[in-house]
Design goal:
By secondary structure, the chain is an alpha+beta fold. 41% of the residues lie in helices and 11% in strands. The longest helix is centred in the first third of the chain and has 16 residues.
C-alpha cells in the first residue's frame, strides 16, 4: 500500500474532489464515509420540522455536524457544560474518549438549534437530549446512544445516503477545521511569547 502526504492546505483536499484527483500528493483513500457540504445540508433538512421530535433530531444532527461529537459525548452532554467563553459559546471541559478533556466551540447555527430544542422541551438542567414520545411528550432524563444511531440512519436514508454512521458526521467537521483550525477556534489559541526582550 502506497502512502502519500495529504495536503490539507489545498482548498478542495477532500477525497473525490477535482483537486484531489488531479493532485499527485494524494493517493489512497481515507476510511469511512466523507459527506460533502451539500450532502450534510440535505441530511439536516430531513430532520427539519415543527414537531418536538424534529426539533430534537435537528439539534442532535447539528451538534454532530457542527461540533464533531461522538455518540457517547452527545448523550451525556449536560446543559451546564455549555458556557460562554470570550464571547463564544463552547462546551467546556468535555471528557471524551480515553479520558481526554477538551473545549469544543459551538457555531452560532448549532447554538440556535440547541436553543430551539431546549426552549420547546423545557430543558433547564441535566442532560440536554431526552426521549420524545410519539405524541410529542418529552420524558425521561436522557437518551441512549442507539437513539442517536437511529436518528442519523433515518435522516441519511431520507436524504438518499446509505451506510452512514454517526461517526461519519465527525469527518465533516474534520474536513472543515483541519485546513484552518486557528481560524475556527481563535479564542483557544495562546498569545505568542516575545523572547526578544
Amino acid at each position: 500500500m502506497k502512502l502519500r502526504i495529504l495536503d490539507c492546505s489545498a482548498p478542495n483536499w477532500l477525497p473525490g474532489s477535482a483537486a484531489s484527483k488531479e493532485s499527485s500528493s494524494w493517493v489512497g483513500f481515507p476510511s469511512g464515509n466523507w459527506l460533502s457540504a451539500d450532502q450534510s445540508s440535505e441530511v439536516l433538512n430531513r430532520a427539519c420540522g415543527n414537531s418536538m421530535r424534529a426539533k430534537r433530531d435537528y439539534a442532535m444532527l447539528a451538534m454532530l455536524f457542527g461540533c464533531g461529537f461522538r455518540r457517547s459525548e452527545l448523550v451525556g452532554l449536560e446543559l451546564d457544560e455549555i458556557q460562554m467563553r470570550q464571547s463564544h459559546w463552547a462546551v467546556v471541559d468535555l471528557k471524551g474518549k480515553g479520558g481526554h478533556i477538551r473545549t469544543v466551540p459551538i457555531p452560532a447555527w448549532v447554538k440556535a438549534a440547541l436553543d430551539q430544542w431546549t426552549r420547546a422541551a423545557c430543558v433547564t438542567e441535566g442532560r440536554i437530549f431526552r426521549a420524545v414520545a410519539r405524541m410529542g411528550k418529552v420524558w425521561g432524563k436522557g437518551i441512549s446512544q442507539n437513539v442517536v444511531w437511529y436518528v442519523v440512519k433515518t435522516c441519511c436514508e431520507r436524504a438518499g445516503l446509505e451506510h452512514i454512521a454517526p461517526h461519519d458526521l465527525r469527518r465533516y467537521v474534520e474536513s472543515r477545521i483541519m485546513p484552518s483550525s486557528t481560524a475556527v477556534r481563535p479564542w483557544l489559541q495562546e498569545e505568542p511569547v516575545n523572547d526578544s526582550a
